[in-house]
Amino acid sequence: MELATKFNKDNTFGAAFAGFAASSICLGVLSTQAYTYFKRYPLDKQFYKYLVRVASMLIEVADQVLIAHAVYTYLVSNWGVVTILIAPPVWSLILQITFGVITGTIVKINFALRVWRFSKQNIWVTGLIILLTFAELGTCLEHFRLSSLSKIADMKVVGSLSLGLGMATDVVIAAALCFFLRNLRTGHRKDDSVVNSLIIYAISTGGLTSVISLSTLILYNFMPDNFIFMALYFVLSKIYANSFLAALNTRRVSRGRGTDAETNTMPTFLMVGKVTQRTVHLDPENQAVSVAFRRLTRRCLVS
After folding, report:
1. CA distance 206 to 177
2. Which of 45, 180, 236, 270 could disulfide-link to 119, CB 3.0 to 4.6 Å?
3. CB 74 within 8 A of CB 87
4. pLDDT on residue 3
5. Total-model pTM
């Protein structure tokens, strides 16, 4: 009842509207990244194309529609009706939480696969990431028990646990990628520049999602009588989806050459080790023999 008695339209419905606007901008960025992905990598693996279509676009568009419906219900259909705060929450708001967690789960599982490949199939680190990811997914089921927005502070333990697990997962993923990526350094400037760019990317994406999760967690615990934390949560799933698409789209930049014409296009995190190995084990003498053999063959054909 504290939220209903201390109602302030600016930090409640106003904050929710601001979160909807920010989420719309993130969806626009996500759409641009999706367009860039399909234009740059028309021959990419069907698995990644499916994830981009379903996980990154379909789910996030549905998530944005749910946010729009919830904001419209509270700000337009029930404008000025304070008692809406003690009524059961609108169904779209509850379902939106589920969609957001599903997006985060899909993205984190894909990053866990990166760790699995980079770590040479380290089951302990990868297993920890997957365990934390599904633990967060399990805690989100508790929000279906929310009876009204005025009692949202009563679920502080479950909400804090869910946000804390998400933040911990992001930190573990970023730390694991940085640690295992260092092992791919060979001393060659070109290869090491690729590894360094991937390390910077892992830190930046993991740090961004961790900061948003931590900010949401702090606001939820210290300011549960407003919806500012909800505004950040509206944006969080879009950040996860954008980080996944950015990982796919930076393959061209990280490798230093286009992959559009290749029939076996693979992400940077799959190619770095193989490119590095080919560079390290390249034998100049064998190359010279191969060139001489081709020249001799052409002369025989001409004669």
Report:
1. 10
2. 180
3. no
4. 52
5. 0.77
